[in-house]
Write a structure and sequence with these properties.
- With 86 residues, this protein is mainly alpha-helical.
- The protein has one domain: Winged helix-like DNA-binding domain superfamily/Winged helix DNA-binding domain (Arc Repressor Mutant, subunit A, Orthogonal Bundle).
- Helix content is 59%, strand content 7%.
- The chain is built from five helices and two strands; from the N terminus they run αααββαα.
- It has a two-stranded antiparallel sheet with strand order 1-2.
- A hairpin with a 5-residue loop joins strand 1 and strand 2.
- The longest helix has 13 residues.
Length: 86
């Protein structure tokens, strides 16, 4: 797996969590270790970009979806170019 920066990891977590994912499923799909998930998930929840629903699944909040939309058009990160290649 290619080294990713924290912005790419955050973007992937929020993208995969739109429909709601359990922690282990999210870790597998994003390619996170347990220690990485222990760092990112609470931080994104604290910033109100992610929330945990009644089933114990992480889900991207409205604020998180808005963040994703802004990332997609940000010329500094070239998100659109990267998304087209995936």
């Amino acid at each position: 797996m290619v080294n990713r920066d924290r912005h790419e990891i955050t973007f992937e977590i929020l993208s995969k969590s739109i429909s709601g994912k359990r922690r282990t499923e999210l870790m597998r799909e994003v390619g996170l270790s347990f220690s990485q998930s222990s760092k990112y998930l609470p931080e994104l929840t604290k910033k109100e970009l992610l929330e945990m629903d009644k089933r114990g699944c992480y889900q991207t909040t409205k604020k998180g979806v808005e963040f994703l939309e802004k990332c997609k058009v940000c010329p500094l990160f070239g998100w659109e170019k990267r998304l087209k290649h995936k």
